[in-house]
């Protein structure tokens, strides 16, 4: 390459660097030294071009050369102007796309619905100093909430070291932090306090503040059901219990032995994996409860009998013997079913829209009864099904392939039934609702983090208790892999991505165009 061609490229780059230095100073980096360095370097490149092409520039008075130089300068200015305009437009509009696998920078549907349902303004007061490591992350979380609902959610940060009266009010010691979530205006506004919250805790705090009263959820015990609090070294439902409490429910154990009826304050009853038969009086109490418009979630397990067969048949549900198996849709074991085959039911609509896969270990299938045993007015529907390749294995310990006489095809794994009870003598609610699930181990603490299963259970609970707003997708347990950048690093990244890199491409393109134009 001849020296004249090199200096022509230097001249193109120099002109761009010189003209874009104000853009660097005011829009990208804000660094006077960097903008000045670009201007000096650009001037030097232009000087090299002028020295090398002084004869060509001396003929600039000719019509042809003058038109060429003028068009070159105008083209450079036009390209630079378009670049500046695009960056200014992008800065003002500031569109964001969350491309992370777990969507860690997007609010969950439950959060969006909760914000949309706020009837009074909510305010978050963060007693967190700016030097705290979680300050930026918490501010970003609050910003997303505010952008989703600017009319009903706002926030503020206060350094407790500079406001000792606030620190004393909330009994904060030196170095401690706190977030106060309040609803409404004034000092008497209801509020709750949190440690530095993630999205799940913040959304649950808003739900609790907006709840008019917590519904009691009774967990039946006495028949080998999974306990709310696990014994040492055992399994239990402590994570489910915490989830219920966060969403405004009051979970409590209930032993039906010696009772004639389910307590009248029961918002919902859960049977979680009973392994022994219920007595006749206990079954009668449950039958009366649903007959008066009660709500029940029933979870069964493989190789168990609980004596509730006729009671479930009243509502169109029969639990099949054996274990559901699937040779194709499983997690490596034909008895651990993975399904995204949903019925047309509100419980699973959010899961279907997101394409979630539900995973059920050693599930039992359900047969839906349309006539005969079921009570008048009962409607029963499938909620979750297996794939069409499934079957019911009657001897899971001996065989892992379908045999003659075993039920085959698409199996119902979760079902929902309802019945109008407005005419009941001692009516509790206008409609009885029952959700039957062929697996109870998905409730256990080790399995509760599986997002699809957790939403399936909580949506079933929301549907059964007539709380439509709780049929949604909750914030997932996210393992964030974010990269923390300092302010200087952010400025450097912004300068490289919005200034240096595009200018380099433009400079190369302009140099090529000038070289070809000058031939």
Automatic annotation (TrEMBL):
Q: Membrane-spanning residues where?
A: 32-51, 72-91, 495-514
Domain of life per record: Bacteria
UniProt keywords (A-Z) are:
Membrane, Transmembrane, Transmembrane helix
Which residue numbers delimit the ABC-type uncharacterised transport system domain? Answer: 215-448
UniProt keyword annotation of Lipoprotein present = no
Give start-end of the signal peptide: none
Q: Which Pfam family name is an example for this entry?
A: ABC_transp_aux
Know the name of this protein?
ABC-type uncharacterized transport system domain-containing protein
Q: Which species is the source of this protein? A: Corallococcus caeni
